[in-house]
């Protein structure tokens, strides 16, 4: 199908709901970091959309940097063993750092990332995640800013992919079963 919409089962969070939530989060972040220099660290590739919209919704000047990580191991689930594909360009020693993520699923990626970045001695280290699944809500990750707690369904769009597709949808949705082709 040429039309991405044909692959979707439902829209979980509309474009308007996403943008309204991002404005709320940005207002909180502006207030919390008033008078401090903030470095946003986006986690490639899923966080590109939320990073771009959140950064533009902030009124304070911020810096942005990016990390690319890959969790490997057997199966489709994150193993918690993470490898850095692209490290930060910035030395974060003494900086106020806010990690920006699209989704926390098992929480393994972020718990590894938090301990990795914490070992570099930032002045502060917090997390902003647009979406959070139930398993992560139980994990020992202290997420300062959460957009939406969502059910344990496979979601795509607004940065989130299935086999590298659907990231460019402006909303978050679930995929129709035929897309998985029985290999889910
Ligand atoms: C996805 C998502 C989060 C992570 C969450 O990234 O963007 O970064 O998985 O999963 P976890 O909480 O179970 O660790 P992915 O590894 O698919 O890379 P991508 O961002 O390039 O899609
Ligand atoms: Mn990711
Ligand atoms: Mg992915």
From TrEMBL:
Q: Where is the Phosphoribosyltransferase domain?
A: 15-162
Required co-factor(s) are: Mg(2+)
Gene3D superfamilies, A to Z = 3.40.50.2020
Among the record's GO biological process terms, what is one?
hypoxanthine metabolic process
* Taxonomy, superkingdom: Bacteria
Q: EC number(s) of the enzyme?
A: 2.4.2.8
Give the record's GO CC terms. cytosol
Keyword annotations from UniProtKB, A to Z: Cytoplasm, Glycosyltransferase, Magnesium, Metal-binding, Nucleotide-binding, Purine salvage, Transferase
Reactions performed catalytically: IMP + diphosphate = hypoxanthine + 5-phospho-alpha-D-ribose 1-diphosphate; GMP + diphosphate = guanine + 5-phospho-alpha-D-ribose 1-diphosphate
Q: Report the subcellular localization.
A: Cytoplasm
Broad enzyme group: transferase
Q: Which residues form a coiled coil?
A: none
Asked if the keyword Metal-binding belongs to this entry, the reply reads: yes
Pathway(s) the chain acts in: Purine metabolism; GMP biosynthesis via salvage pathway; GMP from guanine: step 1/1; Purine metabolism; IMP biosynthesis via salvage pathway; IMP from hypoxanthine: step 1/1
Tell me what this protein is called: Hypoxanthine phosphoribosyltransferase
